Amino acid sequence: VNPNRLQIVWFKRDLRVQDHQPLHDALSHTDSEGPVVALYFFEPSLTSADDYALQHASFATECLAQLRKDLAALQVELLVINAEVLPVLEIIRAQWPSMILQSHEETGNAISYRRDLAVERWCTVEGIVWKQTPSHAVVRRLKNRDDWGSIWNDRMQIEVIEVPLPQSHRPNLSKILEALPNNSDFVVLRPGQTDKPLRIVGGRANALALLESFFETRAFEYRTAMSSPLTAQSACSRLSPYIALGVVSVKEILHRLWRARRPDSLRQLASKPDNSLQSISHYLASIKSFESRLHWRCHFVQKLESQPRIEFENMHAAYNGLRPETINSALFNAWANGNTGFPMIDACMRMLLQTGWINFRMRAMLVSFSSYQLWQHWREPALHLARQFLDYEPGIHYSQLQMQSGTTGINTIRMYNPVKQARDQDPTGEFVRRWIPQLQSVPDQWIFEPWTMPLMIQEQLGCVIGTDYPRPVVELEQASKRARDLVWAVREHAQFGSQAQTVFQKLGSRNKQREGTAASKKKARDSKKEKASVANPSEAQLDLFS
Ligand SMILES: Cc1cc2nc3c(=O)[nH]c(=O)nc-3n(C[C@H](O)[C@H](O)[C@H](O)COP(=O)(O)OP(=O)(O)OC[C@H]3O[C@@H](n4cnc5c(N)ncnc54)[C@H](O)[C@@H]3O)c2cc1C
What we know:
Distance between the termini: 49 Å
Number of strands: 5
Number of helices: 28
Largest sheet: 5 strands, parallel
Bound molecules: flavin-adenine dinucleotide
Strand content: 5-15%
Radius of gyration: 25 Å
Oligomer: single chain
Strand order of the largest sheet: 3-2-1-4-5
């Protein structure tokens, strides 16, 4: 081992030792490149940003505890540092003039992007090599979107990288530890934040337990149960926060999925007394849907990688100025706290506030309601939801916020009716009553539109609308019509199609079933059929998106 050199493995959104190329490379080259130390940063610039919350720090801390143990088994020390990256690298550099930095590429928010640029400049000036390995199937400086699908396939086919062998010598870090800023203060966060009482707990063991229970039992119901918030909590994999922090890699999950689909695995499933042939075909359909979602994950992160401005700006410029830039605080606060007077919206938001998770369809409904019926810009709601989603992943998040707000120009516009969604996804009102105790005693007939309940009954039940539960903040029919008219008017504009084509070239899916045709066939987009889908998107249409 060359003691005059040091290799730093900088952990970012990749908190695992399995399938970890930078760690593997570093530990394979200790003879020539020096011993290895691992760093993770809670950077105040990121932890105090508007899209970060205490739950993210707590979840990461749980994941880091297990990572620390896994690294210790490899004789690698993990330093978790509450400070900005560059000053710490300078301290280390003063001790080890010869060092190498290894990490995965990160596609994060603008703050992390600027930090990476600063670190890159610093490395160039100091003559330090920073070796970055691609993350999952996200391609840096992708020239042509047409190639992305095959790159995804190629990357996912590669074997899962084995856990490397331990190093024989640890570097002596005592001088660095003395010079590092005081680490006893935990991450600096925005004041007044509390952790979520019902959120999922971090750590690789928990992620693997979910992965196994999904493929062994829960996947049977996945496809049919993913849309209702009543059933989605147990039928969906719930892996998203672990994927967002890289506690398991997408490739690991995909390889597990392929194993589940092998004939021997299916034979074993079929041999269990409860599993009929029909249930095996449900299982196969479910894991196919799940596989597409893993693909979408990288597809959406690729959008942010290719166009970082989508964190701030509409994908299609025709929507600029359409909604007011300044948020209406009364409407926003009602929405953000689950007090809009629409039971399904409020129940979903209240569940999210407590658990840090809600299923895809209900996320889409929450955003659609804010962007269409409340006619608010997506930016402030995006930040609120980023703080609430334990699985916050900027690439998926901003792409979805824009899709559900209709500002991409390349996707079908979908406006959800929260009363219809309630009837479809919570037919008995069980979910609404669970999250809104004030509505416990309201009979089924009024449960999703309690404002229509006669006043006398409201008084009898002790649930007076406007006192015990809010009055609706908007009139649903009028608000929906106004939004529909305004959004469709933008699409009629002469230059709309050519600009949409530009967005499509850079960010659109090349899967013909999805936005490929939507972008190129303006006529189809404007057809009556499509207009009808605005009110009632079917499950099939929900699948046809990217
Ligand atoms: C407005 C909005 C914002 C969203 N923000 C995020 C976010 O910040 N982070 C995030 O991980 N997901 C986000 N999603 C996508 C989706 O809702 C979540 O990934 C999913 O609900 C997570 O639960 P799960 O792990 O049980 O998903 P599963 O259904 O079990 O899916 C498995 C994995 O596939 C990926 N995935 C699933 N659905 C999608 C999708 N529609 N697009 C891209 N990837 C998907 C996720 O990594 C997920 O963990 C958002 C969706 C909407 C509508």
